[in-house]
């Protein structure tokens, strides 16, 4: 099997409602001769892996047999990666152009940059206000009780909206819905810290990566995210979110 220049990985868990649109958009906007897509399915029960197996034979489907969580699911592909660049992709992401190539070209031009976060929008083109500074309790409280019609100063600070984001900026925190890595950096980090089942693993790996390389927001590449903020309405996910928050603050000795 050929060694691709670029790889991407999606971790799925009961994502039938969105996975077709995601994979179709990725395959449409990447070059099959240089891009390989992995899907790690965390024991879905809604038919997701069977659907992927039948419709997308060119996708490398991996089934661990149980729910490993987000970060551990992505780490499954680590031993298989021989690419130059690797992308962590949510199952509810939509590409509408060659955003992957744009990010790779940007890293080609800037060898000191090892992690890139693109501009992330809702499908209607509205900007998603996502943290770019390290999580702090005050930011998380402000986010939990945010007013969708009005932005408060703490969220503006968390999302670095107090800075000019029309050009590339060094940031502290990426969003795990879509991250571009130099593969060597991702492997050097050992992937995600598997102590986090879900949530905060993106903030954690961003912080670890900054010890090795630059982590940069790149607004000239845009991806679209069908963001449901599930932990706000699902009590089980809320508890996972809170547990991960405590693990993060204990590890980094910050609040």
Keywords, please?
alpha/beta, Spore Coat Polysaccharide Biosynthesis Protein SpsA, Chain A, 9-stranded mixed beta sheet, 9 helices, 9 strands
Write up this protein.
This protein has 255 residues and is α/β, with parallel strands linked by helices. The chain has a single domain (6-252), classed as Spore Coat Polysaccharide Biosynthesis Protein SpsA, Chain A. Helix content is 33%, strand content 20%. The protein is built from nine helices and nine strands. It has helices spanning 16-28, 48-55, 70-75, 99-109, 137-144, 153-158, 183-188, 201-209, 235-252; strands at residues 6-12, 35-41, 60-62, 85-89, 93-94, 113-121, 169-170, 178-182, 214-225.
Provide a brief overview of the structure.
With 255 residues, the protein is α/β, with parallel strands linked by helices.
């Amino acid at each position: 099997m050929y060694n691709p220049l670029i790889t991407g990985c999606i971790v799925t868990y009961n994502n039938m409602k969105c996975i077709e649109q995601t994979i179709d958009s990725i395959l449409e906007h990447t070059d099959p001769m240089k891009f390989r897509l992995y899907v790690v399915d965390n024991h879905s029960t809604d038919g997701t892996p069977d659907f992927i197996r039948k419709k997308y034979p060119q996708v490398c489907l991996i089934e661990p047999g149980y729910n490993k969580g987000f970060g551990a699911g992505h780490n499954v592909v680590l031993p298989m990666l021989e690419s130059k660049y690797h992308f962590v992709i949510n199952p509810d992401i939509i590409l509408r152009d060659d955003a992957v190539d744009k990010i790779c070209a940007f890293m080609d031009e800037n060898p000191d940059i090892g992690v890139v976060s693109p501009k992330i929008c809702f499908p209607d083109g509205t900007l998603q206000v996502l943290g770019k500074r390290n999580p702090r309790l005050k930011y998380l409280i402000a986010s939990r009780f945010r007013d969708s019609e009005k932005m408060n100063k703490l969220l503006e600070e968390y999302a670095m909206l107090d800075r000019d984001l029309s050009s590339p900026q060094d940031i502290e925190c990426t969003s795990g819905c879509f991250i571009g890595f130099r593969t060597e950096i991702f492997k050097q980090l050992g992937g995600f810290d598997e102590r986090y089942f879900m949530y905060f693993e993106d903030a954690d790996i961003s912080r670890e990566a900054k010890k090795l390389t630059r982590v940069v927001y790149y607004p000239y590449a845009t991806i679209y995210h069908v963001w449901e903020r599930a932990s706000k309405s699902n009590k089980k996910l809320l508890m996972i979110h809170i547990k991960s928050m405590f693990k993060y603050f204990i590890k980094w000795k910050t609040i």
